[in-house]
Amino acid sequence: MNVWIIACFELRRMLRARTVIISLFLLPLILIFILGTALSSFFNSGDKIPELDPVKVAMVESVGNRGVVTSQLYTFLESPDIAKMIIVQDVPTSKEAERLLRSQKVDFVVTVPVDFDHQVMSGKEAKLQLMLGSNRTANMVAGTVFDSFLDDINHGRAVTFVASSMGLRQDVSVSSASPSDPHSYVSVGKLNDTATSYSAAQYFAVAMLIMFLLYSGGTASDSLLSERDNHTLYRLQSMPISHVQILIGKMIGSSIVAMAQTLVIITVSYVLYGTNWGQQPVLLAVTCMLMIFASMTFAAIVSLLSKSSSSANNFMQVLIVTMTFFSGGFIPIPVGFIQNIGEFTLNHWGMKSILQIMLHGNISEIISSIGMLAGICATLLALTAIVYRKVGYHA
After folding, report:
1. Torsion of CA 95, 100, 106, 111, to 10 degrees
2. 256 and 15 Cβ atoms separated by less than 8 Å
3. Which domains does the chain show, CATH number per domain?
4. Distance separating alpha carbons of residues 364 and 385, to the nearest angstrom
5. Average pLDDT, the chain
6. The pairing of beta strand 129-132 with beta strand 108-111
7. Which of 134, 155, 367, 378 makes a 20 to 30 Å CA pair with 176?
8. How far apart are CA 388 and CA 255, in angstroms?
9. C-alpha to C-alpha distance for 250 and 295, rounded to whole angstroms
10. Rg over CA atoms, the chain
11. pLDDT (tens digit, 9 = 90+) per residue, 246-284?
């Protein structure tokens, strides 16, 4: 009973503060709008399939080296479907092609070996020398196109070998070089029919929700330390209330505010910005509750170990911003070292769980992400118990 009385007083105290209303309820909604609008170009909103820009390819070919197979390569590149994706620029030397690639005037370099036709005609594997640029999408498109040509050439070589062994005649050719063949080697589409790409509003709604749930833990930490700094903790401890009840009561009061904050952000972003939060409300609620729990336990640890509210606030601010950055909360981070660091943050697993819910992901994958979040919560709870036993919450 004492716990709930303290929780009610904590709830009333927080709701009376204008800074709490502004920082926890209004500010995240404003940031979702600003970031979602400003960075919408980084996202493929809805189910719209983006148009790919043609890839500029520098072709290096020795003078007088164009044989039958090389001619087939150029015919293949001039076919209507391929010409939409590949723009060929003839370059005399590999050195010049490399210079163009480094200056980003071309996206990809293909060098035709001097003995290319001879190698193919003699029954050896057809190979081109490829030099990749800095654009991963262009590399993927160009690589797929030229690999397709080589696959057809090598397939024709294999057919020729088998046919010749049977006493039949078969010329090496590439079927896709024929203009009558409408087949395209590169097609852009969705990986599946159920998952959709999240929009900028969805991404930043999740990122800001997670970040400000952590900030709600910061307000709880500030409340715990203000009781000690203002010497009102003496009065509370003079009453027949245990120290644990005071701590838990304040955590519950702050958690209720965080729950209200979650409902406001989800509801308002859905109504005003059209944010689709998926079709798994139970899993969404579980994820948010785990984030609130983690935020409160972390706030308790910081409060118990800090000597003043200013040092605790500074530490919480730096930590929350750092975790948000490494988890891609301010801008999506490509696969790499920074993203690997983000996997050790609360934000990463919270965002991953909710984004998978938004994209109608596999239930087992969603539960796996939630399980990681639950494991972090259990670890933080154990640390809170250890710190409380050693330090305690005293005036």
Report:
1. 0
2. no
3. 2-46+199-390 (no CATH), 55-177 (3.40.190)
4. 31
5. 83
6. antiparallel
7. 134
8. 19
9. 13
10. 31
11. 888 889 999 999 999 999 999 999 999 889 998 999 999
Tokens of 236: 């509370």
Residue holding tokens 């003079």?
238
pLDDT digit string, tens, across residues 200-232 = 889 999 999 999 999 988 888 888 888 887 777
Distances (CA, A) of 312 to 135, 209, 225, 319: 44, 22, 8, 10
Rounded CA separation 73/71 (Å): 5
* Three-state secondary structure readout of the chain: CHHHHHHHHHHHHHHHCHHHHHHHHHHHHHHHHHHHHHCHHHCCCECCCCCCCCEEEEEECCCCCCCHHHHHHHHHHHCHHHHCCEEEEEECCHHHHHHHHHCCCCCEEEECCCCHHHHHHCCCCCCCEEEECCCHHHHHHHHHHHHHHHHHHHHHHHHHHHHHHCCCCCCCCCHHHCCCCCCCCCCCCCCCCCCCECCHHHHHHHHHHHHHHHHHHHHHHHHHHHHHHCCCHHHHHHCCCCHHHHHHHHHHHHHHHHHHHHHHHHHHHHHHHCCCCCCCHHHHHHHHHHHHHHHHHHHHHHHHHCCCHHHHHHHHHHHHHHHHHHCCCCCCCCCCHHHHHHCCCHHHHHHHHHHHHHCCCCHHHHHHHHHHHHHHHHHHHHHHHHHHHHCCCCC
Angle made by CA atoms 349, 352, 357, in degrees to the nearest 5: 130
Looking up tokens 């390819």, which residue turns up? 57
At which residue do the structure tokens 């050195």 appear?
A: 95
**Residue that the structure tokens 């983006």 belong to:** 50
CA distances from 57 to 18, 141, 142, 147, 271 (A): 59, 11, 8, 14, 47
The tokens for 147 are 């690999």
CA distances from 340 to 86, 201, 209, 323, 348 (A): 34, 24, 22, 12, 10
Q: Which residue has the tokens 């015919």?
A: 75
Q: Beta partners for 91?
A: 60
Q: Give the residue from 37, 38, 92, 85 showing the smallest Cα distance to 61.
A: 92
Q: Name 165's Cβ contacts closer than 8 Å, sequence gap at least 6.
A: none
